[in-house]
Amino acid sequence: MAPAPRLLPVLTLLLLTAAVGPCAGAGRGGGRVDLWPMPSSVTRGAQTLHVSRDLKLTTAGSNYSDGRGILRDAFARMVAVVNMDHVINGSYQGAPVLAGVNVVVRSPDDKLNFGMDESYKLSVPATGSPLYAQIEAQTVYGALHALENILHWHIVDEQSFPLEIPSYPKLWNGAYSYSERYTMDEAIDIVQYAEKRGVNVLAEIDVPGHALSWGVGYPSLWPSATCKEPLDVSSDFTFKVINGILSDFSKVFKFKFVHLGGDEINTSCWTTTPRIKSWLIQHGMNESDAYRYFVLRAQKIALSHGYDIINWLGSGVAEKVVAAGLRCIVSNQDKWYLDHLDATWEGFYMNEPLTNIYNPEQQKLVLGGEVCAWGEHIDASDIQQTIWPRAAAAAGIMFVLTNLFFEFEERLWTPIAKVAKDTRSVTARLARFRCLLNQRGVAAAPVAAYGRSAPSEPDSCLRQ
Ligand SMILES: *[C@@H]1O[C@H](CO)[C@@H](O)[C@H](O)[C@H]1NC(C)=O
Ligand SMILES: *[C@@H]1O[C@H](CO)[C@@H](O)[C@H](O)[C@H]1NC(C)=O
Ligand SMILES: *[C@@H]1O[C@H](CO)[C@@H](O)[C@H](O)[C@H]1NC(C)=O
Ligand SMILES: *[C@@H]1O[C@H](CO)[C@@H](O)[C@H](O)[C@H]1NC(C)=O
């Protein structure tokens, strides 16, 4: 027997992101539109649509051939999600039924990378026979955003060196264990998996600090056997290894940027190791000169492999960085670190990356923000509920994974003018988004309190 027809809000089923144009269907609860994050523009109608069980994908008027099946697979994933809810057979007579989605992509093909047009317009008309929703996008990746949310996987490592580097095959001796490693083929799989979902993979090697694990395979990268970080600045071998890593990276990680870390450095090993100390004196460098020399030389290597570079900087520096004409991604640890379990979703939501940046030209240099979940209080047992829904509160939808820490990243989605001044007005919308995540098998924690808190009592997902 077919499941009893139920009134379904088409909008909230079809997408977690944006809708523009005349829409039939809307969120539960009166005039509210239950979308997270809020799109740049949205209008709604008053009618309710049913979603057909055999929803069809059509591409009338599209220039994109979908040779790799990116669109087809994304549509199948969306249909699987829709079918988890209560959909009806196409023959249902009682109310308008959405028969399918027509996707029009203007560009015939596109390589996923930084700066591509990922916008889209989704309209769900109130009438039509058969009735089709229409997605219009410049690129197939824009169309993907209209079909589903998107995760960003970003491979990084710190105390563990989990990735196979063919140029220096002993580097991954520094992994936590034999089984906690990625082969190059697995890295390629990850990148391809992400790419098919419109997700860029940004790889990081954090140098010269946070690189102790490198010396497990190659001890000469350490200043000495008793003083193991930062990497030996005086040795050409250090830079040969960095070159080998970035050379291997460039065959796998095709994103425009590579992350070179550069944070939290304590250079005392450079002055307490006699060999390095003499090198500093010989080159007329103090510790900060040597740090600068290291960072610049590593950057030059990255540039030679065709990468643009991202480095970590201290806190409160965004305004200075953009004043100097450089681009930046904001990730302040007091507000946007998910491993801070006492950080509330309201804090994530209200954090403003453009703080103290008023010049519109300089505002454009802020590419977005990144919320990070470092490994301090997180492992496979609680990662999802630590990350969600707070990452979503920062409009963070992109996903990053390493053996050591997890990181999210996202160009901020909702225009500042539309960010609510009072978080109470968006709580219900975020709660609904969390329920969608739960429905899709993501163990997002209740919205009510701090990171990964338990529900306070048995209740509807929507009220928790
Ligand atoms: C609805 O679809 C299912 C399978 O797709 C079929 O078995 C069932 O007979 C259909 N019911 C009606 C009322 O058409
Ligand atoms: C498809 O490509 C043709 C040729 O470049 C162009 O004229 C047309 O506008 C494109 N279609 C869409 C929907 O953009
Ligand atoms: C740097 O490391 C040395 C040696 O471990 C330690 O004595 C010193 O306190 C550290 N400096 C800072 C600023 O943490
Ligand atoms: C290091 O030397 C540079 C000049 O080479 C100087 O500007 C800087 O202040 C020195 N830093 C420290 C910490 O002594």
TrEMBL record:
The keyword Glycoprotein applies. Its EC number is 3.2.1.52. One of its GO terms (molecular function) is beta-N-acetylhexosaminidase activity. GO terms for cellular component: membrane. Residues 1-25 form the signal peptide. Residues 149-312 form the Glycoside hydrolase family 20 catalytic domain. Keywords: Glycoprotein, Glycosidase, Hydrolase, Signal. One of its GO terms (biological process) is glycosaminoglycan metabolic process. PANTHER family: BETA-HEXOSAMINIDASE, BETA-HEXOSAMINIDASE A. Belongs to the glycosyl hydrolase 20 family. This is beta-N-acetylhexosaminidase. The gene is ga04685.
